[in-house]
Amino acid sequence: MAGGGDSLRALLRAANALLQQRRYHAALAVIKGFRNGAVYGAKIRAPHALVMTFLFKSGSLREKLKSIAQATYAHSRNLACFVFTYKGLLAAQSRLQGKKIPFHSFLAACIGGWLVFGDNNPINSQIIMYLLSRILFGLSRLAVEKGYIPQPKQDPFPLLAALVWGTVLWLFEYHRETLQPSLQSSMTYLYEDSEVWHDVSDFLIYNKRTDSK
């Protein structure tokens, strides 16, 4: 029994010594990036899939749980593979050119995005839309910071909020098919289902009646 414990401790010491080797840092960072991508993807997708599935999807409990598991796995796998690809390509470019330059990040991410997120499916679509909104905010701030556009005299956020809500509700009312399915479901619940009721049960307690009255 003691021999087994000694062997485990020796293995852990060897692993820790390997992790401290600077020459293996780039390769180990790629591996840990894969690990972090998988964990983060699961943490982000599982609660979202749980809420959206039980709010808007029909079917048995088993079917719902299967849908949640599939969405969580897809998000976790894709993010893990992207981080692995991105960090691997960064390390390769840096090694080939002897230094790290800003273009390396852009090129590595472009290739990773094409390979991992290029398939047009609901999971990838949600991730790309999430990133796109933040990119637009980031580029706007960068443009002001660099002096490409003048610093606004007043906070432009109220105007942005008005335009965003005005546009999305116009699209929902008249060009609904252009919106992402989960957004359509959310807006249907908020703006259409609130127009229909029969009695107090589906006015205050439930969204829709489940009986055949």
Automatic annotation (TrEMBL):
Give the residue range of the signal peptide: none
Recorded hits in InterPro entries, A to Z, give: Pmp4
The Gene Ontology CC terms held by the record are: peroxisomal membrane
Its recorded name reads PXMP4 protein
Lineage of the source organism?
Answer: Eukaryota, Metazoa, Chordata, Craniata, Vertebrata
